[in-house]
Write a structure and sequence with these properties.
With about 350 residues, the chain is an alpha/beta fold. Helix content is about 40%, strand content about 15%. The longest helix is centred in the middle third of the chain and has 25 residues. The structure holds zinc ion. InterPro entries: GH.
Length: about 350
């Protein structure tokens, strides 16, 4: 049992020769995989260079996964959404206020088509090894996610499309209070868009590998995120996903939290014959003592995690979300990557 993949995310796609230099630096940091964060703008504007960048990564020996970063604000990420800019409709709607929100409703045919076209076009053109589904989520609630916060009351989505589907399926108007039917409806619809697109990608090329990365929450009696992907069994059981991954945990959260999330991630993945993946926070914040990075990697390793991921290249250096000592953080993560990836060979 050992860690077989070490990934880092990479954005600001543009010039192949610049990406190539960055890929060399990733190799020097023990990375086996680059997760290309392809924004809606990149897709719209830089598309000719995306396959060339993938080719450069392959030439250097990196595996490449494509992350439709922040698409429609359905996935996690800071990027702005062209879909939201170009469409005033097809947005998630607050159950309590009826307001349309700056999040695409991924249950609408319009956004589903947009998402599928984005991914299938890249599956055909880019020549990458697979896709990374990055923190898919409903806009609300998330207050449930906090281990200190209380339960949120508002939720999404009560747009005309969701309300119509709900009525058709359950035979009554979608309530404003989140009952069990609403919970099931939200989860079922949320899974559909990812499964449908994954299936179509694999039909195009069966070798394409899909990682589904959901929020790392306790999902306990007291704390449930209700973002649509809380039932890890449902997600990990999907035949269209190859890797079950759970997101970054902030360095200052208790050790026990890291341990519980990791145990449950590995257990869910193994139960359904999937690879497991856990993440390191390589931007924004850093541990007070960098040795905590070593200890966390050791914990992941000891609990049987198959793959490690880090967000993001160079600790976010140069961005508003850079870690205070971004380059040192990146180096320490790199040292850990090099240590673990040498094992089991
Ligand atoms: Zn909706």
């Amino acid at each position: 049992m050992s860690i077989t993949r070490t990934a880092v995310s990479y954005y600001n796609l543009g010039y192949v020769e610049h990406a190539e230099a960055d890929f060399r630096e990733m190799l020097d940091h023990g990375c086996t995989t680059v997760i290309l964060a392809v924004t809606e703008f990149d897709f719209d504007f830089w598309r000719p260079n995306i396959p060339r960048i993938v080719e450069a990564a392959h030439r250097l020996g990196l595996q490449v996964l494509i992350d439709p970063w922040g698409i429609g604000k359905f996935f996690g990420g800071e990027q702005v959404s062209k879909f939201l800019q170009d469409n005033t409709g097809n947005r998630q709607v607050s159950a309590l206020t009826g307001e349309a929100l700056p999040y695409a409703c991924f249950n609408t045919p319009s956004f589903r088509d947009y998402f599928a076209r984005f991914c299938l076009t890249l599956a055909r053109e880019a020549g990458a090894d697979g896709f990374f589904w990055d923190e898919p989520h409903y806009a609300f609630p998330k207050s449930y996610a906090s281990i200190t916060g209380g339960a949120g009351e508002d939720w999404t989505c009560r747009c005309p499309v969701c309300m119509g589907k709900f009525r058709e399926h359950y035979g009554y108007e979608m309530p404003k209070v989140m009952n069990d039917d609403v919970k099931r409806f939200r989860r079922r619809e949320a899974l559909f868009i990812l499964e449908d697109t994954s299936r179509r990608i694999k039909e195009l090329d069966p070798a394409q590998e899909i990682t589904c990365c959901v929020h790392a929450t306790l999902n306990s009696y007291y704390v449930t995120e209700h973002r649509g992907y809380d039932d890890w069994d449902e997600v990990a059981a999907s035949p269209y996903f190859d890797v079950f991954s759970t997101t970054i945990v902030a360095w200052n959260l208790p050790r026990g939290f890291f341990e519980e999330i990791t145990r449950r991630t590995v257990a869910a993945a193994r139960k359904y014959g999937k690879q497991s993946e856990r993440w390191l926070m390589g931007y924004y914040r850093q541990p007070e003592d960098f040795a905590e990075i070593d200890r966390t990697v050791e914990l992941y390793e000891s609990l049987g995690v198959d793959r490690l991921g880090t967000w993001t290249y160079r600790g976010g250096y140069g961005t508003v979300l850079a870690a205070p000592d971004a380059l040192k953080l990146w180096d320490r993560i790199g040292e850990n990557y090099k240590r673990v990836i040498g094992k089991g060979k």
